Amino acid sequence: MDERCTSASQRTTTASWRSRRVVVGVAGSIAAYKAPFVIRLLRQAGHEVKVVATESALRFIGAPTLAAISGHSVSTGVFDDPAAVEHVAVAEWAELVLVAPATADLLARVRVGRADDLLTATILTSQAPVVLAPAMHTQMWFNPATQDNVAVLRRRGLTVLEPDSGRLTGKDSGVGRMPEPGQI
């Protein structure tokens, strides 16, 4: 009986330890189609998820899909509700910020501290750990500017995952695919 109580107690402690408030950022990449799968896996693991998408991301995947999967409305613009100061509210709510996909442009903007949209403003404001899952063409990933941006972000304590290798947009294959949702 004591073993059962201990096991149940450990499961409860483990479950509460794992459960987090996660902001999932979605940047403008064809890989945005994978974001709902990332969100679904996070929610299945017991995390609460809010989505912050760039305007470019919403050209690849619609806000209704992201809202339905996350269970929350999708935040997109700094000026959607200026009185709410949403980038601060969302940043303070977050226990983890995960950007999947993170484009070369987003990596560069985060590296220099730009806050010109809701996603970058949230990242800049948040004190939570930040994980970036890159998605871009092979030449973009290996470009010295991108490699320098990644190195700087990692030195600053942000986690930049290694992209996968495989089929890219069009006929190309190589390094640059966003890691699969299960890996993230």
Question: Would you mind describing this structure in some detail?
Answer:
By secondary structure, the protein is α/β, with parallel strands linked by helices. Helix content is 43%, strand content 19%. The chain has 9 helices and 7 strands. The strands form 2 sheets. It has a 5-stranded parallel sheet with strand order 2-1-3-4-5, with helices on both faces. A two-stranded antiparallel sheet has the order 6-7. Helix 2 packs parallel to helix 4 and helix 6 packs across helix 9. The chain starts with a helix and ends in a 7-residue tail after the last strand.
Task: Summarize this structure briefly.
The protein is built from 9 helices and 7 strands; from the N terminus they run H-E-H-E-H-H-H-E-H-H-E-H-H-E-E-E. By secondary structure, it is an alpha/beta fold.
